[in-house]
Write a structure and sequence with these properties.
- The structure is a single chain.
- The protein is an alpha+beta fold.
- Helices cover 20% and strands 30% of the residues.
- It has 2 helices and 11 strands, in the order βββααββββββββ.
- It has helices at 53-72, 79-92, and strands at residues 2-4, 26-35, 38-47, 104-106, 113-116, 130-134, 137-139, 143-145, 148-153, 158-160, 169-170.
- It has a 5-stranded antiparallel sheet, with helices on one face.
- The two termini are 19 Å apart.
Amino acid sequence: CIGFGERGALPNVDPSPQRRLRQGDTIRFDVGGRYRHYRADIARIAVFGEPDARTLQCHRAVQAGIERAYEIIRPGLPARELFHEVMGAVRKSGLPHYRRNHVGHGIGLDGYEVPALTESSTDVLQPGMVMCIETPYYEIGYGGFQVEDMVTVTQTGVESFMTLPRDLMRR
């Protein structure tokens, strides 16, 4: 899913020949792939031209949630605790009304596996689990913001599979 401007808030946006990219538009990339039957899923945000204050605030907030996940992921952490910590970080960083039913999911042979990073999850993080940590924010009529990283739980914490920075890309 690659959408820009107000269409970036749509989950599975189709191309539109009527809407052209404009200065200040955000561009949301949520893409995946497969390698030897294993799935991948990542998301990043770019802006065409210079971002306005609102764009910077939205990006800063969703990125704060990802950063909080990196700080606390470890074996034995209940998935529901990770959910609450990530949600709290996004809300404190500029999106107090932020709502999600999950902040990530396990990934492997299927796109959604254990652990479920939800408020009601009974899953507990274990070494070797591969997960996507994500904090999408969709504002209808304005745009979509999403940062999603693939990580693995290690014996002592977390390791990222990512090589692309989470910063707001500018073109």
